[in-house]
Design a protein that fits this description.
By secondary structure, this protein is α+β, with helices and mostly antiparallel strands. It has twelve helices and 18 strands. The chain is globular. It has three domains: about 1-85, Rossmann fold; about 115-175, Dna Ligase, domain 1 (2-Layer Sandwich), CATH 3.30.1490; about 180-365, D-amino Acid Aminotransferase, Chain A, domain 1 (2-Layer Sandwich). It has helices spanning about 10-20, 50-60, 75, 90-95, 100-105, 120-130, 155-165, 220-235, 270, 275-285, 310-315, 345-365, and strands spanning about 1-5, 25-30, 45, 65, 85, 115-120, 135-140, 150, 170-175, 180-190, 195, 200-205, 210-215, 240-250, 250-260, 300-305, 320-325, 335-340. Strands 10, 11, 12, 13, 14, 15, 16, 17 and 18 form a nine-stranded antiparallel sheet that branches.
């Protein structure tokens, strides 16, 4: 079976690397043959929304998936050939628009932030007055890793926020004073079987994920997360990996975003779970039985952002797993990640924070 992947970033690359041992083949579509995925599998070079090239991909593959959720849905509809598209396009469409995403959470009874659609300076003022300050203004589409966002803390911020973002459809929501940020990664197979990975505890900086630790063993929060994910999986008749990011506030989860794909906070599963999120995604979309999601210990994942640290020095660390995506350095760009797995959460946390500090000194500060 050949799996087509629209987008050949690091997520697509890791899907292919996980699928080869299962006997699967891969074919990418991306504008640049030198992308991370294009370094490990054949690639059709061209725009992600090129209908002719998408048709070629669909005709040459049995199933088509994607590693980026901002591909125009219309481009993927009614493609020639018999290839299935997984996850379903309905889920992709919802995830592409923050307003429909919030409305879906509400429809399914999943707690989320207070929000309002904003399409004028007047509606922004009304939203800020109704929902209150502080708040955050976001573009409804194409925002990720903190892009397309503006935090408003006082009335004087409204003009600057509108000037910065007012040319696009927007969403205003209250700024949640959260206790922690977590994510849940769930997988639904072609036969309807559902499995969950342990909850992830995440730390972001400047909108970019820097550190994930798992399992995060809060039983009550895990139950809430599983209920929310199962509602979405069943609602969309979903196939593949789905991720929900939450704020934790006073022991309750508040849904922030959903990602219809494998997720950065699940990179630890490559070494830290019996079956990685990447392998389970390709298992699901290929119609294979899902693998165990049991954690092998206590894992931490550190994103390498902007500039890669010195490989030789870090590889001296016992049990450290190094992942280089083969991308050129650029401020704010995810270039790779590190993973460690320890026998206890305490040892993991102590070591992870020390490693993060070390990486920060060498890379994060170096690009500023």
């Amino acid at each position: 079976m050949t799996v087509g992947i629209v987008g050949a970033g690091q997520l697509g690359r890791m899907m292919a690397l996980a699928g080869y041992p299962l006997g699967l083949d891969f074919l990418f579509l991306d504008k640049d043959a030198g992308t991370p995925g294009g370094q490990v599998a054949p690639l059709i070079a061209g725009a992600l929304d090129d209908r002719e090239l998408l048709g070629q991909l669909s005709q040459r593959c049995e199933v088509v998936t994607f590693d980026w959720e901002n591909i125009p849905v219309a481009s993927l509809e009614n493609l020639p050939g018999a290839a299935r598209i997984s996850p379903p396009l309905r889920a992709l469409a919802v995830a592409q628009d923050r307003l429909t995403e919030k409305r879906s959470f509400e429809l399914l009874g999943i707690p989320t932030t207070q929000y309002a659609a904003v399409d004028s300076r007047e509606s922004l003022e009304l939203a800020a007055r109704t929902i209150g300050l502080p708040g955050i203004l976001k573009t409804r589409r194409l925002g990720y890793d903190g892009k397309g966002q503006f935090v408003l803390r006082k009335p004087a911020d409204l003009d600057r926020a509108w000037e910065a973002l007012g040319k696009a459809p927007l969403l205003y929501e209250n700024l949640v004073p959260f206790d922690a940020e977590v994510s849940v990664i769930a997988v639904r197979g072609l036969d309807g079987d559902v499995v969950f990975y342990p909850l992830n505890l995440n730390v972001h900086r400047e909108g970019i994920l820097r550190l994930t630790r798992a399992p995060y063993g809060n039983v009550a929060l895990t139950r809430q997360a599983h209920r929310a994910a199962k509602k979405l999986l069943e609602h969309f008749r979903y196939v593949g990996v789905l991720t929900i990011e939450f704020f934790v506030k006073r022991g309750k989860l508040i849904a922030n975003e959903v990602a219809p794909r494998v997720h950065n906070s699940g990179h630890w599963t490559i070494e830290g779970a019996e079956t990685s999120q990447f392998e389970n995604h390709v298992r699901a979309i290929a119609g294979l039985p899902l693998g165990s999601t049991r954690a092998r210990g206590h894992s931490a994942m550190i994103n390498l952002v902007g500039q890669m640290p010195t490989r030789e020095r870090l590889l001296e660390e016992p049990g450290l797993h190094w992942h280089d995506y083969g991308k050129s350095a650029r401020p704010g760009r995810k270039l790779g990640h590190l993973t460690i797995c320890e026998a206890s959460a305490r040892t993991r946390d102590r070591r992870a924070l020390k490693l993060l500090s070390r990486v920060d000194r060498e890379t994060w500060l170096a690009v500023r």
